[in-house]
Amino acid sequence: MTIEASQAVVEDDAAASITVKHWIGGEFVDSARTGTSISPATGKKIGTFADADTATGQAAIDAAARAFAETSWKIDAMVRATALSHLADAYDARIGEVADTLCRENGKLAGEAAFEAHFIPRALRFAAGLAVQPHGRATDTLPGQQAISIRQAVGVAGLIAPWNSPAYLSIRALAPALAAGCAVVLKLPHQAAQSGALLSEIFASVPEFPAGIVNVVIESGSDVAQLLVSSPQVPVVSYTGSTATGRIIARNAAENFKRVGLELGGKTPHLVFADADIDVAVGTAVASSVVFAGQFCMTGSRILVQREIAEEYIQKLAGALSSIKAGPASDPESQIGPMIDTGSVARVDRLVEEAVAAGAEVIVRGGPSDDPALAGGAFYLPALLKVTDGTLPIVQEETFGPVQTVQIFDTEEEAIALANDSKYGLSASIWSRDIDRPMRVSRRLDAGLISINSWANLSIEFEEGGYKASGLGRLGGSASIEDFLEYKQITQNYIPQPH
C-alpha cells in the first residue's frame, strides 16, 4: 500500500495483527511481497496483506481451470443451488463480522455497513434459484428431427471488484457466475483485503464448493487484473469500477473476443419538480451525498430543481449539509464517515477549487475536516455548488466524493434535457407528487435505474446496470447469469432421414 509521505503509519493495537492471505485452490496462500492496511478513519495500521503479482494470479487461474475441468460443478445444478443456499446461511451467521470489517477497513458508518451486508444472503438465495432455472429449449424442427438449445457455463470467470462496497459487490458478481456453473477468480484491491479474507473464510466453511471453484486474490497494483483481461484461459470478465478503467478493459479484452460485463461510473441527477415533497426530497438528497462519503457510483451529485421552489429547496439543503457531523463508525453521532484515504480527500478538494475558479457559486464549501479529534483520518465535509454552465467538469465528470451541484430548470422538457446531458446513465431520481409525471419522465431518461420519490432504490431481483458510459450488461435479476452462459444447439434425427 502506498502511503502519503507526510502520513506516518501508526498501529491500531486492536487490529494491527490481522494478516490476510490469498485463497487459491482451497488453501490460504502467501505472497513474496506484503502490504499494510490502513484505517481510513484514523490513518493507523490495521493489518497486513499478501500482495499478489502475476504469478499469484496465474496460480489462481490454473486452480480455477482445473476445478472447472475436473469436478462436476459445471454440470450439477442442484449442487450449485445447495452450495449457494448454504453460503447464504453461512453469511447470515457471520453478518455482524461482515459489517464490522466494513467499518474498520472501509470506513463505513455502522448503519451503512449493515445496509451493505444485508443484501448478501438475499442475493445468494436468488442465485440459488437461478442455478436450477431451466435455460434451454426443445422443439421438433422437422418431422422426425428434434433440436435443442442448451446453456453451458463458459468456463473461468474473472471478477474484478472495487473497494467502495467490497462485501456486496463481490457477491453480486460471484453469485450469478457460480449459479451458471463457472469457476471464478475474484480480484480485490488492497483497500478491501480484510473483507476478502472474511469472504474466503465463509466460502471455505461451505463443503459443497469444490476446491478451486472460488479463488480470491488481493493486490495493490493491477498485475492480476491485467492478466484476467488478457488470459485466453478466462473467457469472461466482470468489472465494477471507473469508466476510464472499464474502457481499457473492453479494449484489451477484444483481442481474445472476450465477454465483458461492466458497471462503471455515474452522475445521478435528482429531478425535483415544484410539486415535490420538499422536506423528503431534501433529506434524501443529503443522504445521497453523504452515504459512503459520496464514494458510490449512484451518489446523487446533480440537483436539478424547478424554479418555483428553488430558493426554498436550496436553502433547506444548504442548512442540512452544513450541519453534517463527520466521524468514525465508533461514534454513533457520526453522519458521514471518512473517504478511503487522504489522497482522495485532496483530489476531491482540488476538483471543488477548480469548479469555483471556473465560475461555480459556493453554497456550502465543505472540505477537509479541521476537527482535531479526526486528525489522521480522511474526512471530507459535503460541498454544494450552484452552477449555470452545465459543461463544467464538476457537473460532467464523476467526483466520487460528497459534492453536489445545483442547476435550476423551468419546464419538464428542460429537466429531462439537463438530466440526459451527461455521458453517464446509471441512475436518476424523480421527485413529484403528480401521479403521471414520474412514469412519463422515467421513460425518457437515459438511465438504468429510476427511483421515484426515492434514491438508489435497488432490488436484487431486478437487473442493475447503466446506459452510455455507465457500462455494459446487467448484474442482478434473471439477466445477471447471461454473461456466464454459452448457447449450444444440438440436433437429432430420431427417424432416419435420407441425405
Ends distance: 67 Å
Which value, in Å, is the CA radius of gyration? 24 Å
Low-confidence stretches: 1-11
Oligomer: single chain
What best-fitting shape do the alpha-carbon axes yield? globular
- Mean pLDDT score: 95
**What's the CATH class of the largest domain, please?**
Alpha Beta
Main beta-sheet strand count, sense and barrel state: 7 strands, mixed
Question: What CATH architecture label of the largest domain applies?
Answer: 3-Layer(aba) Sandwich
| Share of residues in strands | 15-25%
Protein name: Aldehyde dehydrogenase
InterPro entries: Ald_DH/histidinol_DH, Ald_DH_C, Ald_DH_N, Aldehyde_DH_dom
Domain Aldehyde dehydrogenase: 31-490
Keywords: Oxidoreductase
Description:
The chain has 499 residues and is α/β, with parallel strands linked by helices. Helices cover 36% and strands 24% of the residues. The protein is globular and about 80 Å long. The model is unreliable at 1-11 (pLDDT under 50). The chain has a 7-stranded mixed sheet, sandwiched between helices. Strands 11-10-9-12-13-25 form a 6-stranded mixed sheet, sandwiched between helices. It has 2 domains: 10-264 and 472-487, Aldehyde Dehydrogenase, Chain A, domain 1, CATH 3.40.605; 269-459, Aldehyde Dehydrogenase, Chain A, domain 2, CATH 3.40.309. It is built from 14 helices and 26 strands. One of its GO terms (molecular function) is oxidoreductase activity, acting on the aldehyde or oxo group of donors, NAD or NADP as acceptor.
